[in-house]
Design brief:
This protein is α/β, with parallel strands linked by helices and 596 residues long. The protein is built from 24 helices and 19 strands. The strands form 4 sheets. Strands 3-2-4-5-7-6 form a 6-stranded parallel sheet, with helices on both faces. Helix 3 packs across helix 18. The radius of gyration is 25 Å and the shape is globular. Its cofactor is thiamine diphosphate; Mg(2+).
Length: 596
């Protein structure tokens, strides 16, 4: 039979899993074996096309698959066994779901005859993950495996990307039958709208041509669509200022004069001010989530809204759109740019100058720490300044994440990985590992907190054993910094259970060395640059640098949760001066809008 390539081959279901992954072009799977997935691990050992990275915890496998996917644009794949192995993937699936990361998780399930009997390690992982996956499958027959995996990859990577789970019963992995690769598949009800409607494009173009204070509100959808070039072209044509959400910090270079930075709770004054005073917000691939809008009924009060998104469920969910555009971000930006090219555009120079002055006056900064202590913001800015141009930056979640957004250089697409929607502590180390596997030629720096690092640092062993030379900066302030900042501001400095005592345990240098890394500790300002340079030179092992920093450094600017963006503070009790001229023009524009 093997001599006749036109005749279907007999395979076990487990062999079909591996053969399907090879046909789908998968080059790496992050996973950890166990009883219910062991049949699939056996042929995986012989695959010449699929590399397996054995992680130390399934959550690490999930975040590594995310990191690989975001850094490369390809589907990330992770694998786990049933029961607690599968449930350990839940956090990563949830994270990928909220951040629209294309990912396929393959889990082993108990045999079909045991499903529903509370068999050993049986978990209804399909039911558990139903709300946090784009789709999921339960496969009980070997013959269904190739089609399910082909469909899973298609669903994960098309439309609004997201995680898909394929749960395969043990008996399906063990059965032998003919392997038939699907030539086509039909997914009733799943037909993402990619091409924007011409009428909406025309209406959006009309609003842009009428606007005096337009702003582009760019989200992670632009990054996922690989539309940085199309965005740059539209900005070149129109001269419209750009604000980029936390998830889109790498799609428009910060050194462009029209880049206003990140909006929202810890956004820049220029970005927040641009949205609050705009008469037109053109949102592309962005959600109007609460971290951006603040108090929703006061968000961008004078603006008409064009909302373009490949997911129609996002449009109008939180903010009514005057012009809804359902479609792929790349196609939408291209068609808008085509429609505007060569047209006489309104003069928005006064508006642009106001925002640029705001950007200059209220550029994110920091207060110097007490003598002898390190400023975390300065440390992060030096990592950015000394990192090679091709560096991929990955963060944990918390204060260091916000500082990394503000003070790292953001120049190139697919060079910024962070957990936005879920805000998952423990994301940094495994996501950096996945990014380094996907982009072996790039330098990968992870900026992590001492709290986040202690959640998933065991994956450094995985890095050490597999020659994955990520670099991790621990911004060690001894506390859960963002929570402590809120305790400082809103809980009368009652520091309830936020002191990690990371100055006592663990010894991060010894821990990292025990995990197979080169490790350094930096406590003095004059050691910072030399240590970062030394870390940049080490490319045969993972490197960890612990920076012991000031405990009470704050993230500013800040809009308190539930407050209006108009109440943004640049320091405690200090609000920006918006300028009388801007206020007068804003009021005048609001009046004009009502008359219209």
């Amino acid at each position: 039979m093997a001599d006749n390539p036109r005749q279907p081959k007999l395979m076990t279901g487990a062999q079909m899993v591996v053969a399907s992954l090879e046909k789908l072009g998968v080059d790496v799977v992050f996973g950890l074996p166990g009883g219910a997935i062991m049949p699939t691990y056996d042929p995986l050992m012989d695959s010449e096309g699929v590399r397996h990275i054995l992680v130390r915890h399934e959550q690490g496998a999930g975040h590594a698959a995310e990191g690989y996917a975001v850094a490369t644009g390809r589907v990330g794949v992770c694998m786990a066994t049933s029961g607690p192995g599968a449930t350990n993937l839940v956090t990563a699936l949830y994270d990928a779901y909220l951040d629209s990361v294309p990912m396929v998780a393959i889990t082993g399930q108990v045999g079909a005859s045991l499903i529903g009997t509370d068999g050993f390690q049986e978990a209804d992982i399909r039911g558990i993950t139903m709300p946090i996956t784009k789709h999921n499958f339960l496969i009980t027959r070997a013959a269904d495996i190739p089609l399910a995996l082909a469909e899973a990859f298609h669903i994960a990577s098309t439309g609004r990307p997201g995680p898909v789970l394929v749960d395969i019963a043990k008996n399906a992995q063990q059965e032998t039958t003919e392997f038939r690769w699907p030539k086509q598949y039909d997914l009733p009800g799943y037909k993402p709208t990619l091409r924007p409607h011409s009428r909406q494009i025309k209406e959006a173009t009309t609003l842009i041509l009428e606007a005096e204070r337009p702003v582009l509100y760019v989200g992670g959808g632009v990054a996922k669509a690989g539309a940085a070039g199309e965005l740059a072209r539209l900005v070149d044509i129109t001269g419209i200022p750009v604000v980029t959400t936390l998830m889109a910090r790498d799609v428009f270079p910060d050194d462009n004069p029209l880049a206003m930075g990140m909006p929202g709770m810890h956004g820049s004054v220029a970005a927040v001010g641009a949205l609050q005073r705009a008469d037109l917000v053109f949102a592309v691939g962005a959600r109007f989530d609460d971290r951006v809008t603040g108090r929703l009924d006061t968000f961008a009060p004078m603006a008409k809204v064009i909302h373009a998104d490949v997911d129609p469920a996002e449009i109008g969910k939180n903010r009514v759109a005057d012009v809804p555009i359902v479609g792929d971000a790349r196609l939408t930006l291209t068609r808008i740019a085509d429609a505007l090219e060569g047209k006489k555009l309104p003069d928005i120079s006064v508006w642009v100058e106001q925002l640029q002055e705001m950007r200059k006056t209220y550029a994110p900064g920091w207060e110097e720490p007490p003598a002898g202590e390190l400023s975390p913001q300065y440390v992060i800015s030096r990592i950015g300044a000394l990192a090679p141009d091709d560096t991929v930056f990955v963060t944990g979640v918390g204060q260091h994440q916000m500082w990394a957004s503000h003070f790292l250089p953001h120049r190139h697409p697919r060079s910024w990985l962070t957990s936005g929607g879920a805000g998952t502590m423990g994301y940094c180390v495994p996501a950096a590992m996945g990014a380094q596997i996907g982009r072996p030629e790039a330098t990968v720096w992870g900026i992590d907190g001492d709290g986040c690092f202690q959640m998933t640092n065991q994956e450094l062993v995985t890095c050490a054993l597999n020659g994955i030379p990520i670099k991790i900066a621990i911004i060690n302030n001894n506390v859960l910094g963002m929570v402590r900042q809120w305790q400082n501001l809103f809980f009368d400095k009652r520091y309830s259970h936020t002191d990690l005592h990371s100055d006592q345990y663990p010894d991060f240098v010894k821990l990292s060395e025990a995990l197979g890394c080169v490790a350094f500790r930096v406590t003095q300002a004059d050691e910072i640059d030399a240590t970062i340079r030394r870390a940049n030179e080490i490319n045969d092992r993972p490197v960890v640098v612990e920076f012991v920093v000031h405990k009470d450094a704050m993230v500013w600017p800040m809009v308190a949760a539930g407050a209006s963006n108009d109440d943004i503070q640049i320091a405690r009790g200090m609000a920006p001066d918006w300028g009388e001229q801007a206020e007068d023009e804003a009021v005048g524009a609001a009046g004009s809008g009502e008359e219209d």
